[in-house]
Amino acid sequence: MNRHLPSSSYFRPLLCIDEMYVSFDTSLGRVKAAQNICLELHERETLAIVGETGCGKSVIASAILQLLPSNASVKGKAIFLGRDLLSLGEREMADIRGQEIAIIFQNPSLSLNPIMKVAEQVAEPLQIHRRLPRHRAISKAEDMLSRFKLGDKASPVMYPFQLSGGMNQRVMIATSMILSPKILIADEPSKGLDQSLARQVMKELAGIKDEIGASLLLITHDLLLAKEVSDRIAVMYCGEIVEAGSSAEIFDEPLHPYTKALLNCLPEMGFKPIPGSSPSMIDPPEGCRFYPRCRERLDRCLLSPKMIKVESDDGDREVRCWLY
Ligand SMILES: Nc1ncnc2c1ncn2[C@@H]1O[C@H](COP(=O)(O)OP(=O)(O)O)[C@@H](O)[C@H]1O
Ligand SMILES: [Mg+2]
Fold first, then answer.
1. Domain total in the chain
2. Which CATH number goes with the domain that contains 239?
3. Which residues, judged by CB distance below 6 Å to any ligand atom, belong to the binding site of ligand 1?
4. Are 281 and 239 spatial neighbours (Cβ–Cβ below 8 Å)?
5. Which atom of ligand 1 is the closest one to the Cα of 60?
6. From atom 3 of ligand 1, which residue's Cα is the shortest distance away?
7. SS3 108
8. Residue-wise pLDDT tens digits, 135-164
């Protein structure tokens, strides 16, 4: 975490997503999953994308790494170190994936090889990409694993089925960190883990991320986790970013009615559900997409609001709402 450092705008942007659109052609119509996404991930910061399930968070991560299925169309740019990731060929992209930008998916049991010992899995990228001999790669992998709290009962010579979900999650994180990527994307890394374990794993992840000087793009529906570990937060609703700012400001002074409603859903805030349901992404509401569920709506909200900059003491603050 960089909270003790100056505002993240002091750091150079490492990844600039500019006017990115992602849609899927389906038999029911075109799903507009991400609309006009503009985001900057700065060096060494943690940026969280939060929002309800289905709002388009994972689609952004997959688009950046060109991991979307063939029914997807992607427009816009994602500039990483001077290169547009969205226009790279498969060979260049394969070099970037894992080495420069690593992604941790939510389900370790699908990502780990069941018949390979965990230290060997963590070591594999070193053998493939850095051409290290097996014994050196394994020793580095054991080193990396020792920084995670695997517990007394776990050891690097075990197989994934011998370890718990939390331990396997750490093995996956260790595998993605072993090549010291510049960006780590963690897509719902805490799903399936109980709250205290999720926080413990995130703390270990954040410690290693700081050590290797990486930036973290955290994708989560868990607002409190985002608050605890991120420097900045972008709030997404129905394919659009509706508000972005420092974590402290988003929590202390939310601007967008959706952000306010989302915070009110937290048990600490009275557990008040948002009336209505998430709209269709095939035929989203005209104007502001939150209009049908918004308590503060005005007539002009039937026109699409643009993202505007709002004055703030704490770095860049933006909101997509006619109230500002
Ligand atoms: N391959 C696909 N084909 C059609 N629609 C998809 C596909 N992948 C994702 N979507 C749709 O895109 C929207 C955003 O999905 P996703 O990014 O996975 O949401 P989140 O990660 O926020 O839960 C959802 O409505 C989802 O159904
Ligand atoms: Mg997702």
1. 1
2. 3.40.50.300
3. 24, 26, 31, 33, 51, 53-59, 69, 71, 281
4. yes
5. 17
6. 24
7. helix
8. 999 999 999 999 888 776 678 889 999 998
